Amino acid sequence: MITVKNLTKSFGPRTLWRGLDLTVPAGRMLALVGASGSGKTTLLNCMGLLERPSGGQILYEDTDLTRLGPGGRRRFRRDRLGYLFQDYALIENATVHANLDVARRRGTRPDHTRILERVGLAGREREKVHHLSGGEQQRVALARLMVKQPSLVLADEPTGALDSDNGAMVVDVLRQMSRQGCTVVIATHDDDVRDACDAAFDVHRQREV
Ligand SMILES: Nc1ncnc2c1ncn2[C@@H]1O[C@H](COP(=O)(O)OP(=O)(O)OP(=O)(O)O)[C@@H](O)[C@H]1O
Question: Is this entry keyworded ATP-binding (predicted)?
Fold first, then answer.
């Protein structure tokens, strides 16, 4: 479960939100919606320790993420978090296989063949990521999440570069992860994605819609 309490974020004189409260229980999928520029990505970045809020708390279970030191932040990212962001953060120069292997937890042997089949990339293990299209790279990022099995997934427009079939597949995979207990937060402008979530939170109005 992730709980955002009384969160404020300003860039210089401009305040995006003040006193924002939000809870996403484990096993639930929440859509972050709202006009362009309302701060959906910034809120994901705060939850994902990529940006510091100006005030307030972000609790993951009993840990206040805003108070973690460098070691705690590193461990949280490594052990708990899964990002599905627009720039994918893949290792461009490496193969699909290598990109999946870096996400593997010690002591686990995920079935890459089955996972790549699931995301529509069967047989592409040996290809270099920089040879893949934007939508294919987005699906490698999804496959990497399936390998990592994080307990908190933060996704920013995860269907942005995809056709509708692949978009639906991404939502199915995220739903499957949430059924296994993962907390999933998705910033989206896509009504199909929003409808597939358990709830939607408008970042501009600061309430569920
Ligand atoms: N590092 C930064 N410095 C200054 N302003 C920033 C910074 N990051 C984001 N902003 C501003 O904060 C506002 C919210 O941006 P953000 O990307 O979070 O919105 P969004 O709701 O995700 O938008 P979109 O739907 O267009 O992706 C924007 O006006 C943006 O210019």
Answer: yes
